[in-house]
Amino acid sequence: MTSINREATPQDPQQPEGAQTLHDDLHEIWGNPRGIKALTIVNHTTLGLRFMVTGMVFFVIGGVLSMLIRTQLATPDQNFMTPDIYSQVTTMHGTVMMFLFAIPILEGLAIYLIPKMIGARDLVCPRLTSLGYFCYLFGGIILSFSMVLEMAPDAGWFMYTPLSSSEYSPGLGSDFWLLGITFVEISALSAGVEIVVSILRTRTQGMALHKMPIFAWYILAMALMIVVGFPPLILGSVLLELERAVGMPFFEVAGGGDPLLWQHLFWLFGHPEVYIIFLPAAGIVSTLIPVFAGRPLVGYGWVVFAIVVTGFISFGLWVHHMFTVGIPQLAQAFFSAASMLVAIPTAIQVFVWLATLWLGKPRFKLPMLWILGFLIIFVCGGLTGVMLALVPFNWQVHDTHFVVAHMHYVLVGGMFFPLMAGLYYWLPLFSGRMPSETIGRWGFWLTFLGFNGTFLIMHWTGLLGMPRRIYTYEAGNGWEIFNLLSSISGFVMSAGIAMVLIDIALHFKFGKPAQHNPWKADTLEWANAMPPSAYNFVSLPKIDTRHPLWDNPDLPRTMAEGKHGLAVTSHGRREMWGTDSITGKVREIIHLPGNSWWPFFAALALAVVCVSLLTRVYALAGVFVIIAGVFLLRWSWENGAHPKAAPDAEVRKGDPPLHSRTMSGPGVWAMATFSIANGSFFLSYLFGWFYLWTVSPQWRMPEVSPLSLVVLVAAGVAMTLGAGVMERLVRGLRVNQDRGLARGFYMSALLGAAQVGLVLWSLLTAGLEPTRTSHDAVLLVGLVYALFHGALAMILSAMQGLRVRHGYVGLHAPFEPAVVVILWRYNVVTFWVLVGALGVLPRVIGG
Amino acid sequence: METAFKRLYLGHPAHLVVGLTLWSIWFVAVYGGLSVACAVAPPAPAQGAWTGLNLGLGLFSLLITALLAWLTWAGWKAGRELTGRPRFNALVSAGLYLFSALGVVFTGMPIIGVPPCL
């Protein structure tokens, strides 16, 4: 769309020719390029599919690794693999399945489905989707490449210190894990942030919170849990990599660190992670059961209740992975009780599903078979979970195959089976074709029987005392027959999964063409074309029911004919509704960026950083950090009133304004959501500081704090003044006052520079010895955190000044300062907390 | 009381997360408080469960339970009076307040009988 008609001219929806023209025009605006330019695609449909296909590739890799494990354990005294290789294989099996398959594929499904389900045309930050995908792809490739080099991590998928520390894992294996996984987590976090904002702010007109598809509630909870749950592991990975690379002793007792800090940080992420995987899968179940039962979900409110409870309680269980490390019994009892509590919301959902099936008229199509398998396996896994919540039993079976069996019942039953149900259910939407029921049923039964043969038996080997992770075992312990049966069943399961994959591959060519809405579903994604167009919907409807396609079966036709909102293309922009987060009332038109190279380039630069850190070429890593920063800033430059975004603000008469012409658009929400993630990282850091201070056996607090309190307070004052200037400018814009706008931004940038300079001075004059004591190492990390945030706020304020000069920011486009000021507020709060924790408290309390 | 109810806007969806946020704060406070107390000044094991630490944790738990119970009642009452979306929010929130209150009681019950720092 090169020529833009300033006067919007809606197509005549009454005429089929008009509707076709509308399709063509929308395609011209939203369509995907081919060839090398396919790397620039930011569309959620394409990127969601890429996430899922890449996830399936990693699933196959993880599956092959699991078969190697079962081959090794099939009989006693095997030497199929050396102990070293076996450790690498088990570590990579867990790592690939958890980080490169389970989370990304569910994110991919959410990225693909959420906009279609809530009546939007894309996610709210399409370039972030693209960045997330490439970070995932590059991180996954880097991590997987370690296997080719026979340098894969071998310290177990949760990388406990000191085994993963440089003393006991001197090669690059742990570094591959720490850097690769952190890279992949950037992807998860970016998806988490934009999914939260998309669900809250881009639902179609009238879709109030209590009328959202239930799947959106599950995904909202999952995304918020990613936002809160991933930063502790990112922090842990950064600290462990710093320990391994330069010797900062965060987890080393002799230097004042504590290996248990790693366990806390890992499981603060790791336990919610189980529910991050389970919730979207349960969302699939709650979506499919009503469709195949032919009636609404029984107890929608109860399910919302259960989702919220699960989202919170799952963060209070992390210590149940650490019952054997020697924490006080009363603390163990708290976590034991909390671990039992989480069974309640799960049970509520199970009863809701059963009640829905009971009261409906179930049709046992292929997806329902997988749901049935899920119900049986997951309930068993949940029950062994309650057993493991009991401290004495947990001690008894800790680190045995019983735990491995429980984990697979929960994860495979709770995630893989519903995922397969979902894939079969939405397959006609992806491809426009139906899968083969016959091959599909064979695939299911082989998988189901093989799974239970593998893991039900593993409970018994565990109860007989077989430890996990041993690379072989002697005959005579009574484990032989069970291991052999487990291994045979494992191969049966693999055959089943292979049949499913073959079925899915074949259906693209041989599957029967699907009828419209083939399962007679109620949600909006089935109002799409099959396969969907890049823009999803020609027009965006007003929704006042939880079951739009059941209550108005004609809706897909009228939407395709452009009879609803935003059926206009003459402006050449990618547009969708921005609605109120609670009521679903339309507030603004969100205009989205088009295809862009910046996310790809930024991810590529970050990949070079990752590889440079791995190979310890730190100068190159530094250069590419700067290059990645430049790419990201250039990306942010093409926003708002920039010629590549929305240079004019023309809208149809009666339509709301463009979001960049308001002060509460989705960017504000994205920044606020990102601040939650950032806050989680910061709180994890504070936890680490206080934990080491309180618990670490050889913690050494110096007599006099090395940090100058006067300099830190001066830095805080400068930053607070800078934030004050920003606040005044934003308040002015709210009342149409823009006097001295550019000057004000430069002033706040200068104050930010003063803060950065003072913190740097404090750092350089403190005489820290971060490789000698964990105390100094923790101080260093805190000050670098403050420096980074101060510098970022300074740069963004200066950029705002420049953008005022270019005419991209001002009274006509007041949006961006309202976003930047959130960072300033965050910085002020965290910096003063940091001053209190690092500068004041040690002086008041002492060592 | 009526004014307090109105000020709480019990039909607002923010209440969907307030109850469990209070539960989380309570949980972190009792676990953190216990850990710090045991590291800094552990009571003598001979005292059993009858320690000042248990008493403090127990009283704090009771206080939070009372607050959550009151919010449960307020949410339930508001839900019966409201309609549509606010009613949905108030009733689900009331359920979540109730769960949070029971969660504090259930999770905190070991405070009564388990010595704190063994």
TrEMBL record, chain A:
SUPFAM superfamilies: Cytochrome c oxidase subunit I-like, Cytochrome c oxidase subunit III-like. It is an enzyme of class 7 (translocase). The keyword Transmembrane helix applies. It is found in: Cell membrane. Residues 586-843 form the Heme-copper oxidase subunit III family profile domain. Residues 29-544 form the Cytochrome oxidase subunit I profile domain. InterPro entries: Cyt_c_oxase-like_su1_dom, Cyt_c_oxase-like_su1_sf, Cyt_C_Oxase_1, Cyt_c_Oxase_su1_BS, Cyt_c_oxidase-like_su3, Cyt_c_oxidase_su1_bac, Cyt_c_oxidase_su3-like_sf. Pfam families: COX1. It is a multi-pass membrane protein. It catalyses: 4 Fe(II)-[cytochrome c] + O2 + 8 H(+)(in) = 4 Fe(III)-[cytochrome c] + 2 H2O + 4 H(+)(out). Keywords: Cell membrane, Copper, Electron transport, Heme, Iron, Membrane, Metal-binding, Respiratory chain, Translocase, Transmembrane, Transmembrane helix, Transport. Pathway: Energy metabolism; oxidative phosphorylation. The chain crosses the membrane at residues 47-69, 89-114, 134-156, 176-200, 212-234, 274-293, 300-321, 333-357, 369-395, 407-427, 439-461, 481-506, 597-614, 620-637, 668-692, 704-725, 745-765, 777-797, 818-841. PROSITE patterns: COX1, COX1_CUB, COX3. Signal peptide: none annotated. Its main location: membrane. The keyword NADP does not apply. Its EC number is 7.1.1.9. Belongs to the heme-copper respiratory oxidase family. This is cytochrome-c oxidase. It comes from Vreelandella malpeensis. The gene is ctaD.
Automatic annotation (TrEMBL), chain B:
This is Uncharacterized protein. It comes from Vreelandella malpeensis. Keywords: Membrane, Transmembrane, Transmembrane helix. The keyword Transmembrane helix applies. The chain crosses the membrane at residues 20-43, 55-76, 88-112.
